[in-house]
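Quick illustration, no need to memorize.
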Amino acid sequence: MIDQLTASGAFDFFSTSTWTIVRNLAILLVAVFWLAVAVWVYKDARRRIEDPWLVAMATLIGLVPPFIGALVYLLLRPPDYLEEVRERELEIRAMEDRLATRNLHCPVCRAPVEATFLVCPVCTTKLKQACVNCKAPLEALWQICPYCATPIEPASTLELPPLPAPRRERRRASE
C-alpha cells in the first residue's frame, strides 16, 4: 500500500506543470549548451585549419554526436593556431636570413672580415688558402677549386699565430 502511495505521489509530481517547466528548461539548457559547443568547435577550427571543407567537417563532427563529437575534435585538432604557425615560419625565415648574412670575424683578433679575404687585414692571420692556378680563396674542406678545377694539395691547413701566454706565466717570466 505504501508503494502504491509513493508511486502515485511520484506520478502526480511528474504530471504537474512545475515538472513540465523544469523539464523544458533543462532541455533548452542542454540544447543551448550543445549549440554553444558546436559554435566553439567552428571558431576553434577556423583558427587552426586553413581548408574550409575541413573546418566544415570538424564542425559537423563537433555537432552531430552531441558532446562526444567535441571531445573527438579536441583529440584530433591541430595543436597550433594558424597565426602561431605563420609567426614561427617568419621567425625561422628571419633567422635563416641572419645566418646567411652573418658577419664573419677573424678567429684570432675578432676583426670583421669578408668571406673572400685570404688574410686578416688587422692581425695578418691566414684565413684561407689561395688556389695555385686562379688565386681564388678556397674553403678548408674543398678537394678541388670550383673556379678552375685545379686539385687542391692535401696539406692545406691554416697557419694560426701562436696564442699569447696566460697571465700567470707572463708574471712569472717577468719576475
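The mean pLDDT is 84.
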